[in-house]
Protein 1
Amino acid sequence: MKKIFLLLIVALAFTSVDAQVNPELNKLILQSFQYHPHIQELNKSSEISEIRVDVAQSNYLPTVNGTASYNYVNPLSQTTIPISATESRTLLFQPHNNINVNIGVSQNIWDFGKTKAQIERAKADLLVSRQNTEAAKLQLASQVIGIYYSLVYLKSAMQVQDTLIAFYERNKQVIEGKVKQGDALTVDVMNIANTIDQEKIRKTDFARQYDRQLTLMMYSTGTSFEPASSEFDFKLASRDFDPQSSPDVIAANYRIESSLADSRLAQRNRMPSLVFAANAGDKNGYQPDLDKMRFNYLAGVTLNVPIFQGNRLRDNIMIAQKSVELSEITKSNLTNTVMKDWQSALVDLNAYEVQIKNAESQLTACHEALRLTQVRYFRGVATYLDLVFASANLQRAQLAQLQYRYQATITSAELLRLQGSKFWQE
């Protein structure tokens, strides 16, 4: 039991908030906990586990039963007793109608630790159930964060497209004026019109993805919510990591404790048990008046000693021991997997941060290049293709920067999930 409580303290120690969540996103995360069927399912499973602890503890309490029985017996055992030299009497040993009404009490006096082992196993299973719920909440919170910032990214991407389309529309009007003046060709108008159509198609694709993310938001939170924020404001606060803080590793530790408790229970089942039993009530069948109901009682103790049960006890002990070994191997494998996932995600985050910085300088250069190209085009030095090329470079730089920020945000959320940090505000 000390190990179980120690694991619980370790789990609580790593539930501090390591990231600030904006109120809008925080509300969605908490709403998903109330709405999502999987979380409700796990909560109900935890409630069942709590009841099982009460059931195990109830073995310390006495059992009281009320019993009423009726039996009709025929023929009856009887004998003839001579009363005098000329007279005899038939004596019945029981009546035809046998009635018995009583209340019985049974109390386990000593079971050599079997009840205690059952309680320990039930409590260990409860910790596993609760930790599974916490791990599922972290997973669901990461999912909601991914959907939320996907919407932010796609909304910003559509705004980039709107800006680009508006830019091409303005230039289309300029080119149309140049065609009328004889300074440009009609094919230039056709080319820019085709470019506008292509950018509108790309915006439509972004809008399609946006609607799909709204559907996922409805599935996760029960509401089709469109974020008002346009910033990627979710940041990782700490890069320190202990694999023992991972919700999956904590759950594996609890499963080991559950297996150990099951092993202790299997070993205790070989021990005897001493039970006190008593009952009192009314029944008939007493001489000399067999049909008269009379008060009666009994009390005693029973010692049950397992001697041979077809090797079932021995096999159950072996199964429990193998389960402990399996749980320990599973934890070791899981710890390695968590460390691998953490290191991979951290490498990705570092790369995204470098790419964000590079994209910022690239974006500045693209803005300046487009400005100079516009000036040169209006003066007749640059061609329409130069203008399209410069605007396309700016668009790619803007979308790339959005993509890197989005990926960095999702990776930060994954790192916090691996840390086991409750980054929502409760």
Note: The two ends are 29 Å apart (CA to CA).
Protein 2
Amino acid sequence: MKKTFPLLPLFLFIIILLVGCEKPRPPITTLTAAQEYFLKICREELKYDVTVIPQGRTMWVYVPLRDGIVDFRAAPKNQAPKASMMESWSLSFLEAVFDHPTKTFLVSYDLEKTRKYDQKMTYQNKYADEYSKKQRDILTALTRAYFDVGQVSASLAVENDVVQKMKNNPHSPVSKDPPPEFFVMVFADTKNGVAIKAINYFEDMKMALSNPPAITNEEYGKRYVFEMFGDEKMVGDKTGTNLKIEEVTLPDFLAKQIENRIKYQFMQSGFPPTGETRDEIWNIIAETCRLYQFKDFEKIKLIDLKTQQESIYDKSQL
């Protein structure tokens, strides 16, 4: 099936996760000023029943949905079929993890070139209206709680909504406490047990929102970690009780971002790779580490599942 999800603007890039949890979490007793203000905006202004769950330097936000995440709709009748064929990449498997004991990035993949044909579709799938609206509103509330209006670039706001709302609240209590290192936002379809999770690095968000922006929209889009998955434990869970809450670490975040960048480069880029797959993936990993000035690793191990070839690189080769 041909996917037709629209590209999300900058502020939609930060989104969400869920996983099952065997042991109940201890109750949250203390929130920072910014977290309290964020909840106040969500519950009193937006009338959204959200849950904030701090975990070390990571802030989790759980948002239950009534109407699901994806809608199927008829495609426009003027959608003309195309007879063109192009060579593209087929991704059968991709997984990137950081092995903490050995401080090694492990990337397993099965990628190959294939033929792709454009075909007329009579239907298309899009994000549901409720999900799209809550996503924008939650991001607006998060920005109001953690960023001063003078720091935010109006050009990056969705219809300038974030900047306008911040101007309407000039005395919003931007927190004096250290901000979270990571935001994890989970939008959960509690009827069907499906969720969207996104992880965003605070420093990335700060650069994207700076005036003028320190990174482009395209680069920012590559930096957020996005995942959609299902878990039966989410059915009926309105407060995220069954979430497996973990503190996000930079190497784990970078491993998932490496997955994102590989998918983008091979599957979405207007300039797909033309060289050796192994070399392209190595370059993506090296570039990601350089962008974050991340040096607390020892090796990179690439595993081509199709050929069973393993390639090991030392940090000194960056």
Note: The chain has a mean pLDDT of 82.
